[in-house]
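Data card: per-record layout.
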Amino acid sequence: MAFWKEHKDLPHYFIGSGNQYGATYSYAMCYWEEQMWIRTKSIGCQEFFHGMQEIIVEDTPVTLFMGEDEQRPLAERIAKFLPRVNANYTIIDTKEHELKGISPEFRGTISHLVMHGVNNRVDAYMELFLRHPLSIRRYYRQFDY
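The structure for this 145-residue chain is written out next.
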């Protein structure tokens, strides 16, 4: 909490690709920016090594969404890079979650649903952490614009 209070203007970077990119984009924009008022930036794994990696330093807040589809190798490359330059990253990997009754061949197809469940839990924690219910908005549906 102290880090966040001292660096409110520092954006939190969300990285993901494949069927995780929808979660990456919407989670950064709709949940963290719109509902929690935290500055964010979402980026696709395929773009990460084309400039963004140069702005990552030790305390840059980063979250990597890793799914199980054909673009997983892109996320794995970033997962190997982050510990070398950053101490403030989180990797959420759907492969770490047991899915009883789901054949391995289908995990990649539904991994975005797993990420959605994980993000719902993070949201519940963030509401408590920030003491800010996600239903509160500054402007959205507050007046005509």
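Known properties of this structure: The mean pLDDT is 92. The first strand starts at residue 12 and ends at 16.

See the next section for split statistics.
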